[in-house]
Design brief:
By secondary structure, this protein is mainly beta. It contains five helices and 17 strands. 14% of the residues lie in helices and 43% in strands.
């Protein structure tokens, strides 16, 4: 039996206080093609098709990945230079409660062209330490905004890479119901937005989930360390 991955999240309460949430991650699910807005979904399918990736048989799809891929490290080691990040809401099932965080479905794009399920397993999945209680954001979920940035041409320059309301994605509780049989210890990446200017790699990836109603954000940034394919 696989030993669960131990992660410590920080629960940010609406009162402004924080508490540590020890989390034993025993299962990782990656929701693909999770767009609620069909136009945005077709856009994402089209941009991936430009990379040679076969369109899905149905939407949404739920990919299984090893829970050990979850990481809160600031440096992500990947093989080669063909990978890129995708900002996504993160569903965390701990005890009898749902928490919401932020993660990146960092993916090897070359491998994705021949097998999406296999490509999901090739890169660790960076996640932010901060989480919110889903019950605190559920009433105004559609107003939350998901953004990411990649490195620009000049040193210290950031380029907006993704930007949009999570209203274009299916709600996390809806995805949990569609996936079925999600037990405590499950983490699920809940879908992403299309990339502005097309999918492309970057040496660093910054992402944010912003709540304009409660005036708070979850932020995370990580650097990509490309390993040589042959040493």
């Amino acid at each position: 039996m696989t030993t669960p991955l131990q992660l410590d999240f920080e629960v940010h309460e609406t009162s402004g206080t924080t508490a540590i949430l020890p989390f034993e991650a025993s299962r990782l699910v990656i929701a693909g093609w999770a767009g609620r807005d069909q136009a945005s979904l077709r856009h994402h399918i089209a941009e991936l098709a430009d990379l040679g990736i076969t369109p899905p048989s149905k939407t949404p799809l739920f990919y299984a990945a090893a829970a050990s891929l979850l990481t809160q490290a600031s440096v992500l080691e990947v093989l080669g230079t063909d990978s890129s990040g995708e900002a996504e809401p993160l569903l965390v099932l701990a005890g009898d409660e749902i928490f919401i965080g932020l993660g990146s479905d960092h993916t090897d794009r070359r491998a994705e062209a021949w097998s999406v399920p296999h490509s999901k397993q090739l890169c660790d999945k960076p996640v932010a330490r901060a989480v919110w209680r889903f019950k605190d954001v559920a009433p105004h979920w559609d107003r939350l905004v998901l953004r990411s940035w990649i490195a620009g041409a000049a040193a210290g320059e950031w380029v907006l890479y993704q930007d949009g309301a999570v209203a274009s994605l299916r709600r996390p509780d809806e995805l949990a119901d569609l996936a079925g049989d999600l037990a405590p210890g499950t983490a699920m990446l809940c879908g992403t937005l299309g990339a502005i200017g097309g999918i492309r790699p970057s040496s660093v990836f910054r992402m944010q989930l912003h709540d304009p109603v409660l005036s708070r954000s979850i932020d995370h940034e990580y650097r990509i360390a490309a390993l040589p394919i042959v040493t």
